[in-house]
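BUG: 3D viewer hangs when loading the predicted structure for this chain

Environment: internal workstation, default settings.
Expected: structure renders.
Actual: progress bar stalls at 90%.

Input used:
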Amino acid sequence: MIWIGLTGPMACGKSSVARILSRYSIFKVIDADLLAREALSASSPLVPHLVARWGKDILDEQLGINRPKVGDIIFNDTNEKIWLESLIHPLVKAQVEVEK
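Structure tokens produced before the viewer hung:
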């Protein structure tokens, strides 16, 4: 199997290319950004870890993660961003392996 990674800045066409590739049966598109967003859903096993570190104020009405509040934390403290990525990346990697 050949892997093609689409990377680049916002609005450069990654999603458009992924949509085009998904039209062909020889390609399977796995959206790591979507998997990372799912890692912060209300049912995520990460939620208790984030609440333990940052408090219940980071929860939204559905008891998922309030992304703007977490964004304020991680974009103002590199160490917090690294910590969050250390939780999210293994989940995303595991899910990619399942979807392959």
